[in-house]
Design a protein that fits this description.
- One of its GO terms (biological process) is putrescine biosynthetic process from arginine, via agmatine.
- By secondary structure, this protein is of the alpha/beta class.
- The chain has one domain (16-282): Arginase, Chain A, CATH 3.40.800.10.
- Helix content is 34%, strand content 18%.
- The chain is built from 8 helices and 10 strands.
- The chain has helices spanning 41-49, 81-97, 111-122, 151-159, 174-183, 194-201, 233-246, 266-282, and strands spanning 21-26, 55-56, 61-62, 68-73, 101-106, 127-131, 164-169, 185-188, 205-211, 248-255.
- The chain has an 8-stranded parallel β-sheet, with helices on both faces. A two-stranded antiparallel sheet has the order 2-3.
- Helix 1 (41-49) packs across helix 8, helix 2 (81-97) packs parallel to helix 3 (111-122) and helix 3 runs parallel beside helix 4.
- The longest helix has 17 residues, at 81-97.
- The two termini are 25 Å apart.
C-alpha cells in the first residue's frame, strides 16, 4: 500500500486501490555524460502539469474520468547507481505485486534498468519498445557499465535477442549499430515501421521506455544530450498513442527532461502533454 503524494501530476490523485496505473519519480542523474539536471525532471513535470488541461482534444478523453495514482519521487542515492537501481526495482516490484502498472518519470535513462529488472522477473516473455535519439547500446561508458549510455545493453542482458525495438535513433558509436544489427531491431531517424512492429507484438507483455530527446531540440531543448534531426511533437504524440493504446503495456517510463536547459518551460510543457497522452491511451 503506497501513500498519495502531496503534489501530484494532473488529476493523479485517486485512491491507490482504485488506480490501474501508478506513477512515481526517479530523480537520478549521476551517470549523465554531458549536461546534468534530469534529477529535476519528475518534479518539474508535476509542477508544470497544473498549467495543462486534463482534457485531451487528440483522444477526446479527460484525466478526471479515470483513476490514476501518483506516489511521488523516490529518495535515491546519488553516490551509488546500484543502490538507486535497487530502490527503483523495489518500488516497481511493489506496484506490480499489487496488480498495477508502474509508470516512472525520470531522471536520466539509466533509471529504466531498475524498472525493467522488476518487470522482467514477473514477465519472462518481456519485450521492450524504445524511443530515443541514442542507441544506448554501449558495453560501457568511461569504464562504467551502469550508464545511461549503456542502459539498453543492460536491458538486453535481461530479455535477450530480438526483444528490443528501437525507433528514432540517430546517434551512437559505430560499434553500437554493428552490434545492434544482430541483437535488436533499430529504426533510425523516425517511426517508420512502428505500425508493423505493434502488430507483431500484440498480446505480448511490453515495457515502453521513452527518452524525450527523440524529439528535435527545436521542439525540446531541455535535455542533457540534444541531437538535431529529431521527430516533431505530433509525430511523437501519434506514436505513443499507438503504442499505449494497442499493446499490453505492463510498465513504462518517460525520462531525460533536464529543466535547467530550457528556462522557457517549453520542454516541460511538451513532457507534460506526452505523459498525459500516454496515461489516457493506456486506459482502454
Amino acid at each position: 500500500m503506497l501513500n498519495k503524494n502531496i503534489e501530484t501530476f494532473m488529476a493523479c490523485d485517486a485512491e491507490y486501490e482504485d488506480a490501474k496505473t501508478v506513477l512515481f519519480g526517479a530523480p537520478f542523474d549521476s551517470t549523465t555524460s554531458y549536461r546534468p539536471g534530469t534529477r529535476f525532471g519528475s518534479r518539474t513535470i508535476r509542477q508544470e502539469s497544473f498549467g495543462v488541461e486534463t482534457y485531451s482534444p487528440y483522444q477526446d478523453k479527460d484525466m478526471t474520468d479515470y483513476s490514476f495514482f501518483d506516489s511521488g519521487d523516490l529518495e535515491l542515492c546519488f553516490g551509488s547507481s546500484e543502490k538507486a537501481l535497487e530502490d527503483i526495482e523495489e518500488r516497481t516490484k511493489t506496484i506490480l505485486e499489487d496488480g498495477k502498472r508502474p509508470f516512472m518519470m525520470g531522471g536520466e535513462h539509466l533509471v529504466t534498468l531498475g524498472a525493467v529488472r522488476a518487470v522482467a522477473k514477473k514477465y519472462p516473455d518481456l519485450h521492450i519498445i524504445h524511443f530515443d535519439a541514442h542507441a544506448d547500446l554501449r558495453e560501457e561508458y568511461l569504464g562504467a557499465q551502469l550508464s545511461h549510455a549503456a542502459v539498453l545493453k543492460r536491458c538486453w542482458e535481461l530479455v535477450g535477442d530480438d526483444r528490443i525495438f528501437q525507433f528514432g535513433i540517430r546517434s551512437g558509436d559505430r560499434e553500437e549499430f554493428l552490434w545492434g544489427k544482430d541483437h535488436v531491431f533499430t529504426n533510425k531517424f523516425n517511426f517508420n515501421g512502428l505500425k508493423e512492429t505493434v502488430e507483431s507484438l500484440k498480446g505480448k507483455p511490453i515495457y515502453f521506455t521513452l527518452d524525450l530527446d527523440v524529439l528535435d531540440p527545436s521542439v525540446f531543448p531541455g535535455t542533457g544530450t540534444p541531437e538535431p534531426g529529431g521527430v516533431t511533437f505530433n509525430e511523437l504524440r501519434d506514436a505513443v498513442e499507438l503504442v499505449c493504446s494497442s499493446l499490453n503495456i505492463v510498465g513504462c517510463d518517460v525520462n531525460e527532461l533536464s529543466p535547467p536547459y530550457d528556462p522557457s518551460g517549453i520542454s516541460a510543457a511538451a513532457a507534460c502533454k506526452i505523459v498525459r497522452e500516454m496515461l489516457l491511451a493506456l486506459e482502454q
